[in-house]
Amino acid sequence: MRKISDWGNYPVIEADVSGFDTTEQLRQKLDQPGEVIAFGNGRSYGDSSLQDRILLTRRFNKFISFDETSGELCCQAGVLMSEILDVFMSRGWFLPVTPGTKFITIGGAIASDIHGKNHHVDGSFGQHVLSMDVMRNDGSVVTCSPTENSDFFKITIGGMGLSGIILNARFRLRKIETAYIREETQRAASLDEIMDAFEEPNTWNYSVAWIDCLAKGDSLGRSIMMRGEHASTAELVNPSHKHAPLTLKKGISLEIPFRFPDFALNHGTMKAFNFTYYNKCRPGIHQNLVNCNSFFYPLDTIANWNQIYGKRGFTQYQFVIPKAAGREGMRKILKRITDSGLGSFLAVLKLFGEQDSFMSFPMAGYTLALDFPISFKAMELFKELDAMVADYGGRLYLSKDSRMTAEFFEKTYPNADAFRQAIALLNKGDTKFASLQSNRIGITS
Amino acid sequence: MKNLLILGATSDMAQAVAKEYASAGWNLTLAARNLELLEPIASDLRVRANVNIVPLQFNAENFSSHQHFYNALENAPDAVICVFGYMGDQIEARTNFEEVRKTIDVNYTGMISILNIVANDFETRGHGAIVAVSSVAGDRGRQSNYMYGSAKAGLTAYLAGLRNRLAKAGVHVMTVKPGFCRTKMTENMELPGALTAEPEQVAQAIFKGLEKKRNTIYTLWMWRWIMLIIRHIPEFVFKKMGM
Predict the structure, then answer these.
(1) C-alpha atoms less than 13 angstroms from C-alpha of A62 in its C-beta half-sphere
(2) In this predicted model, what pLDDT tens digit does every residue of B54-74 receive, in sequence order?
(3) pTM higher than 0.90, yes or no?
(4) Assuming Cys at both sites, which of A193, A340, A361, A369 could form a disulfide with A397, CB separation 3.0 to 4.6 Å?
(5) Distance CA B120, CA B126 (A)
(6) How many Å apart are CA A205 and CA A227, to the nearest integer?
(7) Which of A16, A22, A59 sits opposite B188 (nearest CB)?
(8) How far apart are CA B26 and CA B149, in angstroms?
(9) The predicted structure's pLDDT at residue B230
(10) A203 has pLDDT over 90
(11) In this complex, do B47 and A65 lie within 8 Å of one another by their Cβ atoms?
C-alpha cells in the first residue's frame, strides 16, 4: 500500500499499486478479485485513475514498430508523449494531437480522448487512432478500430479506462520540417475581442488564448491569443537553427524545491502575476519563432509545478459550452468567476471544432480551463458554475474533475446512460474496471 | 561502432542503460534469463535507434555455462555492464538456506564467474570497460537486509581488487551503488522523493561516470554522504538501532 494521487494532489488515497511487463502478468493481476483502474503518468487532475487497487501502465512502454515513410507508429500504452518526441522529433515527426503537457501516456491520451491547440482542425487524439488492443475483464484481448469491433472502439475512446486496459495503439505521426513554431501573439482587451479573434476566418493550425480571470468590468475577459504553425525550413532565420532544424537544445528544467505553503498563492499574488503577464504583451500583433517545447509545453519546464498549490491540492475546472451559447454564456460564467476572486493564473480559453464521438469531452464551442486551489469556497462556487454550464448545454472534462455529481454527469453527457449500459453489458455483472470517479458519478457500481 | 554487453538486461535500470547507450550509437547485446521479456525490449530499441541489437539468454546462476556464453558472442564487447541482482527475502533467508544460496549465487558468485571471464579477455586485448551494479546495502550490514548486503559487500570488494589488477592493462572497472531507485521492486512503496533515483538517472550517471572513468559512483550524490555517516556510527550505537 502507498499514498497516491493524481496531478491535483486532491484527493490523496492509500492504494495497492503495481505494474506489469507482459500481457500475461496483467492477466494474472486481473484474475484477482476486486476493482482496478489503470494509472498512466498521473496527469489527470482528480480521481479518474484512482482506486483501491491501481495498475501502473508506465512499465508497459515499448515501441513496437515505426514506418519511416507513412509515420505510422505502434507502441504500448505506457509510452509517454515525451518519449515519442525524444525519439522521433529529430527524425522529422511530431504528435498528431498533444495536450499542454507531454508527460502523459498514450493509453491515458486515448482513455481521456485528449485535445490540443489544433482541435478545431484535427479533432481529438482518439480520431487519429488507427487501431488498438485492449484487455477485457476476463483477460481476453480485443483488437479494435473504426471498422473492426467498432462499437468497442467507440466506447474505449474517451472511455476513461472502463472498458478495459489499453495495451497498445497504432497511429500516424505528423511530418514536420523543423522543431520550431511560427507563433503569432495578439492582445485582446475584452472577451468580445478575443472571441472575434477566434471566430474570424483563419488558417492557423494551433490556437489558444490565455485569459485573465481576475480582471473585472471593461477588462473582463482580457486575453492573449497565441496562434502557431509548424515552421518550414525556409522560415528559419537563425543560422544555428537552419543548420539543425529538427534538433532542439536541451532546455532548462526546473523543480519546485518544496511544497509551497497554502498562503503563497492568494488573490494578491495571482492578480500581480496576471497583470504582469497581460501587460508584458504589448498591443498589436507579434510574430516569433519559438521552439516546440515552449509553444506546446510551457509548464513542463517546471517538473512539479503542481506543488505550488500546497498541501491542500487543487483542481482544474474545465468546461465547454456550445458555440451558440458562447458569448452570453461565457460572459456570465466568467463574470461569476471573477466576482469570486478565486481563480488562479492558469486560465485557458479555446474554440473547439466539431466533434463526433461517444463519450469525449470536446464539442463545437468554447472551452475554458482554470485552476483553483481546493477550498470550501471554491467547491461552493463550482456548484453555481455547474448549474450555469448545464443550462447552456455544456459539460465538464472528466479527466480534470474530482467532484462532479452523478446527477450533473447524467444531465450533461448525452450518452451517459448508454455508456453505463454498454459497460455493464461488457462486465456481465462482474465490474472489474472502475475508478473512484466512475463510482462517484454512477457509471459503475 | 562500439559494442556493449548488458547482463541482466530486463531490469528497469538495465532498460534505461540500454536506451542511453543505443541513442549514443552503441551496438547492444542484451542478455537475460527470460528471452520472452527480452524480445519486446529489443524491438523497442530497434525502433529507437539505428543500431544492432542482439538478445541472448544468460543465466547468472548457471556458472558452467558462462564461458560458452561469452565465447559465443557475435560481437566482442568494448564494455560490459552487469545489472543483474536478486534482492531476496531477508526473513525467509534466516531459516531457508535456498534463499541464502540464491542471494549469494546471483549477486556474488554469478557476477564473479562471468566477470572473471570478461576480465581475462579484456586484459589480453588490453582494452575494455567493466561496470557492475553493487549496492549501498554492501557498505554496512544492517538487520533489514544483511544477506543481500553481505553478497553485495563481497562484490564491492571484488570489483575494487579487479580495478586494481586491470588498471595496468588499460581496462577500467567502475562500481555503481544506487540508493533507492524507483523500479518494479519498489513501485508499491513510498520512497523519499529526494533520495530516490529514477532508472533513467541511474543510466545517465553510469554513462557519464564511465566517460569520466570514475571508480565508484553513488547514483545520487547524497548517498555517498549518507553511507559515510552510516559507516561511521560506532558499533555500540549501531547495534541498538533498528535499521
Answers:
(1) 22
(2) 999 999 999 999 999 999 999
(3) yes
(4) A361
(5) 10
(6) 8
(7) A16
(8) 32
(9) 84
(10) yes
(11) yes
CB B127 within 8 A of CB B76: no
Q: Strand pairing partners for B174?
A: B131
pLDDT of residue B209: 96
Structure-derived torsion over alpha carbons of residues A324, A347, A57, A441, reported in degrees to the nearest 10 = -50
Instruction: Give the type of residue at B138.
Output: G
Taking the C-alpha atoms of residue A285 and residue A393, their distance in angstroms, rounded to an integer, is 34
For residue A410, CA distances in Å to A397, A415, A440, B59 come to 13, 8, 12, 56
pLDDT of B172 over the 90 cut: yes
How far, in Å, CA of B188 to CA of A223, rounded?
44
Distance CA A176, CA A64 (A): 22
CB burial readout B52-70, b (16+ within 10 A) else e: bbebbebbbeeeeebeebb
In the three-class reduction of DSSP (H, G, I as helix; E, B as strand; rest coil), residue A379 is classed as helix
Neighboring chain B residues of A59 at a CB cutoff of 8 Å: 12, 184
Nearest residue, CB atoms, A87 vs list B40, B48, B190: B48
The residues pairing with B132 across neighbouring beta strands, listed in sequence order, are B82, B175
- Residue in chain B nearest A54 by alpha carbon: B188
Q: Are β-strands A180-188 and A129-135 bridged in parallel, bridged antiparallel, or unpaired?
A: unpaired
Q: Residue A77 corresponds to which amino acid?
A: A
Q: Are strands B53-57 and A395-396 parallel, antiparallel or unpaired?
A: unpaired
- Select from A350, A367, A422 the least CA-distant residue to A152: A422
CA distance B116 to chain A (A): 32
Q: Which of A111, A99, A105 is nearest to A165 (CA)?
A: A111
pLDDT at A252: 67
pLDDT, average across residues A411-438? 95
Tell if the CB–CB gap between A21 and B37 is shorter than 8 Å.
Answer: yes
From the centroid of its chain, how far is CA A336? 24
Task: Please report, for residues A83, A194, A411, B61, the alpha-carbon distance to residue A67 in angstroms, rounded to integers and kept in the order given.
Answer: 17, 41, 44, 40
Residues A81 and A103: beta-carbon distance below 8 Å: yes
pLDDT tens across A329-342, in order? 999 999 999 999 88
Distance CA B136, CA A251 (A): 32
